[in-house]
Design goal:
The protein is α+β, with helices and mostly antiparallel strands and about 775 residues long. The chain is about 25% helix and about 35% strand. The chain has 17 helices and 41 strands. The strands form eight sheets. Strands 8-7-11-5-4-14-17-16 form an eight-stranded mixed sheet, with no helix packed on it. Strands 21, 22, 23, 24, 25, 26 and 27 form a seven-stranded mixed sheet that branches. A hairpin with a 2-residue loop joins β12 and β13. α4 packs parallel to α5. The protein is globular, with a radius of gyration of 29 Å.
Length: about 775
């Protein structure tokens, strides 16, 4: 039995048979050196307790240093090999592995020999995980002895030239591990230090949620850290550099004959003079109702307000409106920032007390009337509340309407809800209709920390009223629908669809003070896939977030719900409307007991069969119950397309539809995350949902799990006759299997993620059978 632990393309191999024919050392348990003889004998077990990656990037050259610690949990003396796939053009710089006080030597194998090793492991162990790295060069070293309970520290470094497109440079580290091992890694960290000759503009990860610390206009450190990690994606980082005031970078992905997807990242320079920062008028509206006394919310809010006042620029103006039963402006109109006015404002804030009701309507309309109609200034309203409207006008639609009609200036309204007892529909709509954002401070968070971080982000606006256009290319379905203002130190990421190809001029228009300016950039819109399948996924997440918000704000609309269901199922995005099927183990075994390829395509048979297993659906899309009111026999539960509450046997990833106060806040935070975006790395809830909808998006194709096989959904467009004519079955790990992999370079990555696969390749439909081919149906 062969046991592997692969991390960041690392393979630590332990097996019980000699495998020299594939270029692998003698990897075995040493029969004469057993510590004890168990019955039955356990398998050797090695864990990775630490995996640290340090990367130093200078312009387009990256030096990667990998430090890993292995620990034996076996009661045997083990012997093995250490395998590390390295990029094709990388040069191994250093390798250090000390065992029993001696330095271990290693060797680099070229890609042809490495391919034979990979394929040999796959053939012997009937696991396609390593196929993802077929074709890469391979570093190999012998590891012996690894004593019971002992640890090994391994360190290696390699240097590589990075891929560049225009001003955008890409770095990738193979961190994906889930396919190759059992269990998780205790600690994983990636640290990337970037230094460029030109000014560093855009820096983002398409795969992971990274922290960023800027060290001047040409240096930045990025970091990612996780414990007990089951990494499912390689680490991918992009950055750009140029000396212009604003930088715009473009990535595109196009598959088939349809529209392509694009991603634009806009970032300003770091060094602005005081004259280049736009003046802003800020009105702070803070809830001082009685409930703010709880959990130190009032003290935290007061500290955050003081921080925000102290961070204002000398050309800014401000006002403070506190409210409870009625609104209480600090003074009429706006106050110019000065040493004296700031001191007076801080004294006013310290004197605020929490008591009374919650008059949201009066607070907002009073604050809006305080803005002055004056060109060239950015108008910001910061609204903080921990409750619902209880005094004065309480109807949501009326409050929204009067906020809109009262404003005589272009307003940016940023709403913050504290705790769970807030009207999320109102706060979300206020931000959405007034070109702002919303956020919620849950009981486990600190109000001061969240607000202070926000004040830092909006301190220095540099461009407002942004618009993007492209010469010679039609762009549609763009998100965000209205571009936010651009602030120093910030970035704006834009996703959309496009028609047309080639190198085109991208025009950015915006207002800087009283002047409208245009900046022109150059970008290439690809005519074919470039392997960036994360772009369609991130676009779909933003679209789902936007549509979901529209439904919550404006009421449910059938066409919007249907589009969310379509996108949710196609991309595995968590939504309250996405249907999914949860099968019990016995049901899964029943589905495996068929060898009929036609049934994989037969939508009517599949729907009928899954209807019996997963619940009966009516014409309205809602699950029907049996006559006695209990769930239908065999029902596995789950969200229906109508948003029904899941049955007890189904684990809901997020309880989004029960309507409790807590669920409303969590629901809004999920929608905010989708709309504002993060990396392609899925949250725990999204990963759980993706498994339940049984959909995978890979290499610009969508696959659905049907009876143990991942089927390309594009095949549903073919007739039964066409499918039967083109179908070719391939046994896994056969000679024919590896010949296909050699012929189609992307197939190895697909099979690494989906071992049993049905896909059209050339003029054939290839069905790679499950490793354990199901028995024919009983006749």
């Amino acid at each position: 039995m062969f046991i592997r632990y692969l991390l960041s393309s690392l393979l630590f191999c332990l097996c019980a048979s000699f495998a020299a024919a594939q270029g692998i050392s003698d990897i075995r348990l040493h029969e004469g050196k057993r510590i004890w003889r168990p019955a039955p004998r356990p398998q050797p077990h090695v864990i990775i307790s630490s995996h640290k990656v340090s990367v130093a990037i200078h312009d387009e050259i990256a030096t990667t240093t990998v430090r890993q610690t292995f620990r034996s949990k076996s009661r045997y003396i083990l012997e093995g090999i250490y395998l590390f796939p390295i990029p094709a053009d990388a040069v191994l710089k250093d390798f250090a592995m000390t065992m029993n006080g001696k330095m271990v030597k290693g060797e680099v194998l070229e890609s042809d020999k490495a391919r034979r090793i990979y394929e040999g492991i796959v053939r012997r162990n009937r696991d396609p995980g390593l196929l993802e790295y077929v074709g890469k060069r391979l570093f190999r070293a012998r590891v012996f002895p690894l004593n019971p309970g002992a640890t090994i520290d391994i360190e290696l470094s390699y240097v590589e030239s990075l891929r560049r497109e225009g001003n955008l440079v890409e770095y990738r580290y193979p961190l994906k591990t889930q396919t190759f091992r059992h269990g998780s890694v205790t600690q994983v960290s990636v640290q990337v230090a970037i230094e460029t000759a030109s000014e560093l503009k855009t820096v983002f990860s398409s795969s992971h949620d990274i922290g960023k610390v800027r060290k001047g206009d040409r240096k930045m450190t990025c970091s990612y850290e996780a414990k007990n990690s089951d990494a499912e994606r390689d680490f991918q980082l992009y950055f750009s550099r140029n000396d212009r005031a604003f930088g715009l970078d473009l990535l595109t992905e196009k598959s088939g004959d349809g529209q392509g997807h694009f991603m634009m990242v806009l970032a300003p320079k770091q060094n602005f003079t005081a004259d280049e920062i736009l003046p802003k008028d800020v009105v702070f509206v803070v809830d001082t109702s009685g409930s703010m006394r709880e959990d130190e919310k009032m003290e935290q809010a007061k500290n955050a307000l003081q921080y925000g006042i102290k961070g204002l620029n000398s050309n800014d103006r401000f006002s403070i409106v506190s409210f409870s039963t009625e609104a209480r402006p600090m003074k009429p109109g706006l106050t110019v920032v000065s040493k004296e006015s700031v001191a007076a404002a801080i004294a006013h804030i310290k004197g605020l007390e929490a008591r009374g009701g919650t008059n949201i309507h009066e607070a907002l309309t009073s604050a809006i009337r305080g803005f002055a109609s004056e060109d060239g200034r950015v108008n910001i309203l910061v609204f903080l509340t921990d409750g619902r409207a209880t005094v004065g006008e309480t109807r949501m639609q009326t409050i929204l309407k009067e906020v809109k009609t009262s404003s005589k200036v272009p307003l940016r309204l940023f709403s913050f809800g504290v705790g769970y007892d807030v009207n999320t529909d109102l706060l979300d709509a206020l931000a959405d209709q007034n070109r702002g954002t919303r956020d919620y401070v849950t009981p486990s968070q600190n109000v001061e920390v969240v607000l202070s971080s926000f004040f830092d982000k909006i301190a220095n606006p540099v461009m407002s009223d942004l618009e993007i256009s492209v010469d010679g290319v039609t762009i549609t379905d763009v998100y965000p629908k209205r571009l936010p203002d651009l602030f120093k130190g910030g970035e704006i990421t834009i996703f959309g669809r496009y028609e047309g190809t080639g190198v085109k001029a991208i025009r950015l228009e915006g207002r800087i003070g009283n002047t409208k300016k245009e900046y022109v950039f150059e970008g290439r819109f690809q005519s074919k896939s470039d392997g960036r399948d994360f772009i369609p996924l991130l676009w779909a997440k933003r679209k789902v977030g936007y549509l979901w918000d529209q439904i919550r704000i404006n009421g449910k609309q059938g066409e919007l719900r249907d589009e969310i269901v379509r996108l949710g199922k196609k991309y595995g995005i968590v939504t309250p409307f996405t249907s999914y099927l949860v099968l019990e183990d016995s049901d899964r075994q029943q589905l495996r007991r068929t060898d009929s390829a036609s049934r994989l395509f037969d939508q009517r048979n599949r729907s009928a069969r899954w209807g019996r297993l997963g619940g009966v659906s009516g014409s309205d899309g809602k699950a029907k119950d049996s006559p006695n009111g209990s769930p239908a026999p065999g029902s596995a539960g789950g969200f229906t397309s109508g948003g029904a509450v899941p049955a007890a046997r189904a684990k809901a990833p997020v309880n989004l539809v029960t309507g409790t106060k807590k669920d409303g806040v969590l629901d809004s935070l999920v929608r905010k995350s989708l709309r504002e975006g993060g990396p392609a790395e899925q949250s725990e809830e999204e990963r759980d949902q993706a498994k339940r909808v049984r959909i995978k998006r890979f290499a610009a194709r969508s696959f659905e799990m049907r009876q143990g096989t991942w089927v390309d959904v594009a095949l549903d467009k073919k007739s039964d006759k066409e499918r039967e004519k083109l179908l070719k079955k391939v046994k896994p790990f056969s000679t024919e299997y590896f010949e296909l992999i050699a012929k189609h370079k992307d197939l190895s990555k697909l099979l690494a993620a989906m071992p049993s696969l049905m896909i059209e390749l050339g003029h054939q439909i290839i069905w790679v059978l499950p490793a354990e081919t199901p028995a024919p149906p009983v006749k």
